[in-house]
């Protein structure tokens, strides 16, 4: 069963086709990866799927049409470009703000995820003291904490060391087992090969299947 369907999705800017007739579907419970060179259109596809930009064509999530002005059809955990963190708060508090919003407050789950990503679990260390990689891991944790039906990660391995990438792979697999569907962009071939259940290539705003 498909969670997401894109049909003939296009977007132009100043006469240039940034997305060119993109059609593919994302199966429920899959880990779909998007790969391609800088500027090929990977992030725009994620933004289109999330209803963050206007496109022509049709996008449905859970069989409901995605509209920029509408309510998003499912709960989604998202990391696109840079993580949005509150620097004056701890990692714990940053995650708690999200679970409160999702009405799924579970402090044990927050602790578990922080431990899994080797991040401080205390409520005193402020995020402003974190390294780049620690901030990136907290951004990923923000997208994952609610165990949402859809989890979208844009270049999650950026700034991560090998050990952190290995832990990320384990966490993604666990969450997939628990029912989440993932769409992930990455330049990291080893990472893609380790996690993808389906690989989609992006070139000049168009998509193709990667064998
Ligand atoms: N808001 C915008 N207005 C105009 N052009 C845009 C906008 N956002 C992105 N683009 C252009 O669309 C193209 C695709 O951008 P996108 O961010 O999707 O690339 P990407 O594949 O994610 O690249 P990277 O690997 O560098 O993250 C690029 O040529 C970019 O300059």
Q: Which of globular, elongated, flat, extended, rod-shaped describes the shape?
A: globular
User: From the helix content, strand content and strand pairing, which structural class follows?
Assistant: alpha/beta
Report the sheet with the most strands, covering strand number, pairing sense and barrel closure: 6 strands, mixed
Total number of helices:
6
The total beta strand count reads: 10
Q: Spell out which ligands are present.
A: adenosine-5'-triphosphate
Keywords: ATP-binding, Nucleotide-binding, Transport
InterPro entries: AAA+_ATPase, ABC_transporter-like_ATP-bd, ABC_transporter-like_CS, ABC_Transporter_VariousFunc, P-loop_NTPase
Protein name: ATP-binding cassette domain-containing protein
GO molecular function: ATP binding
């Amino acid at each position: 069963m498909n969670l997401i369907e894109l049909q003939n999705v296009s977007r132009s800017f100043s006469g240039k086709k940034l997305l060119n007739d993109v059609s593919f579907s994302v199966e429920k419970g899959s880990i779909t990866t998007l790969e391609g060179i800088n500027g090929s259109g990977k992030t725009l596809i994620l933004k289109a799927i999330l209803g963050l930009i206007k496109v022509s064509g049709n996008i449905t999530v859970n069989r409901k049409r995605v509209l920029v002005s509408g309510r998003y059809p499912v709960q989604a955990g998202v990391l696109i470009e840079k993580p949005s963190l509150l620097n004056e708060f701890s990692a714990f508090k940053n995650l708690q703000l999200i679970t409160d919003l999702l009405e799924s407050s579970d402090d044990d789950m927050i602790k578990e995820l922080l431990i899994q990503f080797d991040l401080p679990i205390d409520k005193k260390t402020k995020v402003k003291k974190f390294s780049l990689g620690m901030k990136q891991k907290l951004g990923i944790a923000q997208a994952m904490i609610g165990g949402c039906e859809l989890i979208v990660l844009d270049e999650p391995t950026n700034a991560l060391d090998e050990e952190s990438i290995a832990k990320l792979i384990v966490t993604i697999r666990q969450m997939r087992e628990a029912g989440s569907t993932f769409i992930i962009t990455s330049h990291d071939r080893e990472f893609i090969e380790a996690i993808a259940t389906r690989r989609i290539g992006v070139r000049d705003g168009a998509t193709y299947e990667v064998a």
